[in-house]
Amino acid sequence: MTPTGREELIPALRAAGLRVTAPRVAVLAEMTDGEHMTADQLALAVRDRLGTISTQAVYDVLGALTKAGLLRRIEPAGSAARYETRVGDNHHHVVCRACGAITDVDCVVGEPPCLSPASASGFVIDEAEVTFWGLCPDCQTTSKPTEKERVR
Amino acid sequence: MTPTGREELIPALRAAGLRVTAPRVAVLAEMTDGEHMTADQLALAVRDRLGTISTQAVYDVLGALTKAGLLRRIEPAGSAARYETRVGDNHHHVVCRACGAITDVDCVVGEPPCLSPASASGFVIDEAEVTFWGLCPDCQTTSKPTEKERVR
DNA sequence: ATCGAGAATGGAATCGTTCTGAATTGGGTA
DNA sequence: TACCCAATTCAGAACGATTCCATTCTCGAT
Question: pTM for the complete prediction?
């Protein structure tokens, strides 16, 4: 949850050189409460609260906002792409193998890229993405194996 | 490239409690030279060299081998799932943003999970997956922006 | 108020993967 | 060695997420 108030959304869009439109404001507003949402969840949320939006518009908006640097896209294996408003800092994620819940984790090291591989095989590296896998507090206590148990 | 000779494939399958079938041996053989292949590439390679195999059989085999621990599945954002024979050790990957090439990177730290997040929010973590993003040697020299430039 | 570029819409298409059910086959057993 | 069953393969359909397309709409500069 970034401390971005509704009123700051419009200036934020303008500052990023983007035109201010209803879908964009709506998506951005939904994003500020409810992190790590998928395009689909976002579409439902926007429709529920603020009227109508086409699925494709959601993708367009997410694409534009991501390209503009207002949103960050993450794609944990086995899940649809998710988006978050925390950009610019170097944080990572913990993903629950059972329920798919995602939580932010502050960077263990410091400045990005937070790690340099011992040997990069000649690659020029600009980002180190770290994903921790495990069980969230809720799913730890669930004794019976979760129905839709993730394979990995 | 794991030092697994063709002759060791069959015992390896048996040891894993799997029945030895032509598709399994063929897939496993292809995997030993040609790392980080997708299901599709694998299907083509097997058909080219060893005859016929259905796409679904490739998925079945990959699933079985992965579950048995003979293969590891990796899913870099924006790419189809890829498989590798290096299992058990704790290594990571560098992915080229331009061409999608993947190279192994030895773990920076040591034993898995190689990193412990400062605060895991109550998660019990069993794996830390690290993916470095950048440009491979070939794509660094390519002055003109790659056609199918990856978005992220 | 006008106008053009950028954005939204709706529909179809694509890609990778999974599901289903029938046919085949490995390999333990009689 | 022949037999049999469960494991495996096959074929085709279904699926979810995402992208592509052409048309219509609208923001915001003039």
Answer: 0.87
Strand C lies under 7 A from the Cβ of residue B15: no
Residue B103's CB: how many other CB atoms inside 10 A? Answer: 20
Interface test with A, best of B84, B93, B116, B123 (most A CBs within 10 A): B123
- 3-class DSSP state of B131: strand
Mean pLDDT score across all residues of chain A: 85
Chain-chain contact of A133 with B129 (C-beta, under 8 angstroms):
yes
User: What one-character DSSP code corresponds to residue B146?
Assistant: P
- A17: which nucleotide lies closest, measuring CA to C1'? C6
Across the beta sheet with A82-84, the strand order is A37-38, A82-84, A72-74
The whole-angstrom distance between A97's CA and the closest CA on chain B is 10
The Cα–Cα gap between B27 and B40 comes to 11
> A108, exposed or middle or buried, with CB in 10 Å at 0-12, 13-18, 19+?
middle
In percent, how much of chain A has pLDDT > 70?
A: 81
Report the mean per-residue pLDDT for chain B. 85
For position B6, what pLDDT does the model report? Answer: 62
Residues A92/B117, Cβ–Cβ less than 8 Å: yes
Element (H, E) at A143: none
How large is the C-alpha radius of gyration of chain B? 17
Summarised one tens digit per residue, pLDDT across range B40-73 is 999 999 999 878 999 999 999 999 999 999 999 9
State the Cα angle at A29 between A25 and A31, rounded to 5°: 120
